[in-house]
Amino acid sequence: MALLKSLKHKVQIASQLTLLDWLTLLEAWWLLLAFYLSVRWMSYERVSQIAHPTHGEIIFTSSQLDMAQHLARVVALSSRLHFLPMTCLVKALTLRWLLGRQGIQSCLCIGANKSLDRVHAHAWVEVHGQAIGESGNIVKNFQLLASGRRPVL
Question: Is position 136 within any domain?
Answer without folding.
Answer: yes
